[in-house]
UniProtKB/TrEMBL annotation, chain A:
Membrane topology: Multi-pass membrane protein
Source species of the chain: Roseivivax marinus
The keyword Transport belongs to this UniProt entry's keyword annotation: yes
Domain of life the protein comes from: Bacteria
Domain ABC transmembrane type-1: 40-244
One function term, GO molecular function aspect: transmembrane transporter activity
Protein name (database record): Amino acid transport permease
One Gene Ontology term from the biological process aspect of the record: amino acid transport
TrEMBL record, chain B:
Superkingdom of origin organism: Bacteria
Pfam families, sorted: BPD_transp_1
Residues covered by the ABC transmembrane type-1 domain: 33-270
Gene Ontology biological-process entries: transmembrane transport
UniProt name for this protein: Binding-protein-dependent transport system inner membrane protein
Compartments where located: Cell membrane
Main location per the UniProt record: membrane
């Protein structure tokens, strides 16, 4: 069987399209690369969806945490503490079993026990909390002069936030937010090992990599392939976020532009 | 088991709950919290040692050594840690068995990898198939600790590497002016002075490490996640004196609360250590302390 046939059979296997049975013996390198790559579709799906939805909530939470009114501030603080203070792995388990219990009472919750919705919700809330904290920190370091200048120009309320505070906050938060995005994509690998079932063996990249490692008892092929895919994904994320970063900083004089430094010290969550 | 618990069917309400929460399996569940703490207690210094080694290697003037250090640090960044965990647990096991195989069975002529099997001679098996159960469990735990130490060592190496570069150049130059050798400068100035710069990164790492402990479950150790799934599942009257429905949600809620409390306590303690270390340092924090005291 040529590699092209393998791609046709297994390229979209993680979505349930193509060959139904996974290879069982005589694994070729091509099969491993194609299947693990097919699983990456799920990692990208989870990551992109959680990132886009989480961004909106993170902005709201950050603004909420910066309020002086305790009725708004306290819930935001608790939300951030709840999701940053506990392991994502446990959050997945808890959410899955909570949805399972809800499902037995209300059939409406049936889709929530599937990874495509349930895990996305957990990742969305989780990344909203982490990014919310980053945005909150950036919000506090918006230069006083910027807001005073906005006042002088007669900006107020929503327009001031939309035109002055928010872009500056994003500009300051962007390097840390890039790291959060990288970590979010890495965290998507946890979905199918933490309760959420991979129905009909439709799993993510890690699911297929561990499938091959279990079957061949040789971790030295599938995991490096997985690592290669993730490094590639990380580089793509960095370059896309780099484009946004340049746009956010384009009004600044050349020497004041902050070049994001992707050091693991800031990379951790 | 308490004497009042001899007939669970007759119990009700709180008494039932008290008896339920003190069964033998629940005791095993509580002990597994100790496993988590033990893992942290061993892994944290081990990872710090790995990190120190990695940072010193990355700083080395000998190019190949420096490359190894830098690669070790860089590779963890691009790849999810969970992939490393699943990889190392098998890879380390096979590496140890292979080394023992080379040493103990030199006249073995068959290939190690036969199709989809990894075959070493019986004497090289780790642990030996004749070993008692606790040896198997300890070996599994030790592998997990080593895996954690390698992965988090890379993170620690990065933090320490940055901290060593953050120590003000003037302090090193002063040491040189006093005639200290390179080794003396490293031991007496650089290492003691770097901690204040390393602590924010290391505290962050500690938090990450706490939140990574449930991954023990994936490495085959009977940890709190294992027991929460085990105990929470639906129990029918045939198999247990304490039948109940699917309570896994509540067990995992308990784990969430445990981790929230743990990270909160860590935060408070680390803030105190930071205040202690900042004392008298040439940093913004140290300056603030001086002003507050004056």
């Amino acid at each position: 069987m040529s590699c092209w046939e393998t791609i046709a059979d297994y390229g979209l296997r993680s979505l349930g399209i193509g060959e139904r049975l996974l290879p069982r013996s005589d694994f070729t390198l091509c099969q491993q690369v194609v299947l693990i790559g097919s699983g990456m579709i799920w990692n990208i799906y989870f990551g992109v969806l959680a990132l886009v939805t989480g961004f909106a909530l993170a902005t709201a939470v950050a603004v909420g945490k910066a309020q002086s009114n305790p009725l708004i501030r306290k819930p935001s603080e608790w939300f951030i503490f709840l999701f940053r203070g506990s392991p994502l792995f446990i959050q997945f388990f808890f959410a899955y079993f909570a949805f399972l219990s809800l499902k037995s009472a209300y059939p409406f919750f049936d889709p929530f026990t599937s990874a495509w919705l349930g895990a996305t919700i957990v990742l969305f809330l989780n990344t909203a909390a982490y990014s919310g904290e980053i945005f909150y920190g950036a919000l506090l370091s918006v230069p006083k002069g910027d807001t005073e200048a906005a006042d002088a120009y007669g900006f107020s309320g929503w327009r001031k936030f939309r035109r002055i505070t928010w872009p500056t906050m994003l500009r300051l938060a962007w390097p840390a937010y890039t790291n959060e995005a990288i970590f979010l994509f890495h965290a998507t690998a946890l979905v199918f090992v933490s309760g959420f079932p991979a129905r009909q063996q439709k799993g993510d990249a890690l699911y297929y990599a561990s499938y091959f490692a279990d079957k061949t008892f040789n971790p030295f092929v599938p995991y490096p392939i997985l690592a290669g895919y993730f490094i590639l994904l990380t580089l793509v994320v960095i370059s896309i976020f780099g484009v946004v970063n340049r746009r956010l900083n384009r009004h600044l004089p050349q020497e004041r532009r902050t070049r994001p430094r992707f050091r693991a010290a800031t990379l951790m969550r | 088991m308490m004497p009042a618990c001899t007939d669970p069917d007759a119990l009700e309400g709180l008494a039932w709950l008290a008896c339920y929460l003190t069964t033998g399996k629940h005791m095993a569940f509580y002990t597994s919290f100790g496993t988590v703490l033990l893992l942290l207690a061993i892994t944290a210094p081990a990872a710090l040692a790995f990190g120190f080694g990695g940072a010193v290697m990355a700083r080395s003037r000998i190019a190949p050594v420096s490359w190894i250090g830098r690669t070790y640090i860089a590779i963890v960044r691009g790849v999810p840690d969970i992939a490393f965990f699943l990889f190392f647990v098998i890879a380390l096991d096979q590496a140890f068995e292979w080394l023992r195989h080379q040493a103990k069975c030199p006249d073995w002529d068959q290939p190690i990898r036969q199709g989809n099997d990894f075959v070493v001679c019986a004497e090289a098996k780790l642990p030996l198939s004749t070993a008692p159960q606790w040896v198997h469990e300890t070996y599994g735990f030790a592998l997990a600790v080593l895996t954690f130490a390698i992965v988090f060592g890379a993170f620690a190496a990065n933090v320490l590497y940055g901290a060593m570069r953050a120590v003000p150049r003037a302090q090193i130059e002063t040491a040189e002016a006093y005639g200290m050798t390179e080794r003396q400068t490293f031991r007496r100035i650089l290492v003691p002075q770097m901690w204040v710069y390393a602590l924010p990164g290391l505290s962050n790492l500690w938090m990450v490490l706490i939140k990574a402990t449930p991954l023990l479950f994936l490495l085959g150790v009977r940890d709190i996640v294992y027991w929460a799934r085990e105990l929470g599942g639906t129990k029918t009257p045939q198999f247990t004196d304490y039948p109940h429905g699917d309570w896994r949600m509540w067990y995992f809620l308990a784990l969430l609360v445990f981790y929230l409390a743990f990270t909160k306590v860590s935060e408070v303690v680390l803030a105190r250590i930071m205040a202690r270390l900042t004392k008298g340092q040439a940093t913004a924090g140290g300056e603030a302390q001086r002003k507050a005291a004056a």
